[in-house]
Amino acid sequence: MKENVKSLDFVSTVPSCYGGAVSHKLNKIISRANKKGLEGMISYTISDPYIVKKRNHPDAPIVENKVVDVTVKGEVPKINGWSFIGKLTHDGAGDFVTVLSAPGMKVPTEYRKSTGGCDHCNRARYRKDTFVISKSGKFMEIGRSCLKDFFPTVNIEWIVNYFKYVGDMIDSGEFDDFDSFRGVKVTPTASLDFILMVSNAVIRRDGWMSATAANKIMEKDAEASIIPTSSEISHQLRLLLGFVTPTKYDSIIELTKKDEEIAPKVIDFVRNDMYGDDDYVYNMKNFFSLDEVELRYVPFVASGISAYNRSVEKVIETKAKKAVSNYVGEIGEKITADVEVIGAKYVSSFYGSSLLVRMVDDSGNTFTTFYSGYKFDPEVGDKFTIMGTVKAHKEFKGWKSTMLIRVKVI
Ligand SMILES: [Zn+2]
């Protein structure tokens, strides 16, 4: 093993009809790399096509998709000791720069405040992109034209395409190269509050399934048909905005007053009450400074909803924890209680989505119940009197909770 070499080794599953395009693109990257003396830096294989069964939403019929696995192995290039760490984009998309770290690399946080200068020539001029490179622990920000002095044998566009392509593959398996209309590349966008409304509606219907969790389930059970929630949100946005034509399996999501109300709350939360110094918080602030966001950033924007809900739950939970929770009633007994909702979360399962509701009464006793209808749609902070049957008494992390079934608001 060479020192400090970051290696790439991943499998991306794509529809088999993209197999030809993926192989064309990777061949181009490899032949350019070979010409520049980087032979053997990257290699790939494409599997034979096979069938996966998918359900686009819980009520839709199972459809069969023909896919191929693209296995990519290789190294991140290092030339004359310089490594390529990432790209900074200063295109006014947000108040700050957008940071794209190369796979396996981390752009130091101080570059978030970059104004697009070049540490090499120090010439002041407008630059849409600058690049962060590193050699023996020293970092530099370099403009596009000066990058040649550091990577003399490598075409800059090749590096940009390489990282963008590999990065996209690792992040989402989505290829925005395919978002083109008659050969003209289009970058689909939507307004921030519309993305949030549609995200909330999809989460309400399906629960939240992260891409990582969906992949884990599919690894264990090839027959399972799980689509990450962010993909479904992107798909619904494309349907609603008319970017794609619905097929007979598409049911367009219904937006409610609730979805409309939560959007400004999430925007306000991310802009003013979200704290932290990690790249996640930084990128969230950046995307939420916009009114119009590219659809490829939907996974970020949509995650704002659960971040907001968690923050609301935390405030109320702190209030509730001042009291002590005890079990209420006997198993099988019908009880009534005056409660405040401290958590309402859609949980997704193979059978569809159900709502996990957590409530607390004035003495601090907590109650939980699962609900899978549509009539009862409580929000954190709602107060009402409920009637329900005690199903079980359970302790979570030392906290006693009464589990109820057949809960009614009276
Ligand atoms: Zn320069």
Walk me through the structure:
The protein is α+β, with helices and mostly antiparallel strands. It folds into four domains: 1-77 and 154-177, Alpha-Beta Plaits, CATH 3.30.70; 80-152, no CATH class; 189-314, no CATH class; 334-409, OB fold (Dihydrolipoamide Acetyltransferase, E2P). The chain has nine helices and 18 strands. The chain has helices at 19-35, 147-150, 156-171, 192-206, 211-220, 229-240, 257-273, 279-288, 298-321, and strands spanning 7-15, 42-46, 50-55, 62-75, 78-79, 82-89, 98-101, 129-135, 138-143, 180-181, 184-185, 189-191, 292-294, 334-349, 352-361, 366-371, 383-396, 399-409. The strands form five sheets. Strands 5, 6, 7, 8 and 9 form a five-stranded antiparallel sheet that branches. β17 and β18 form a beta hairpin. The N and C termini lie far apart (68 Å). The model is unreliable at 1-5 and 169-185 (pLDDT under 50). Bound molecules: zinc ion (ZN).
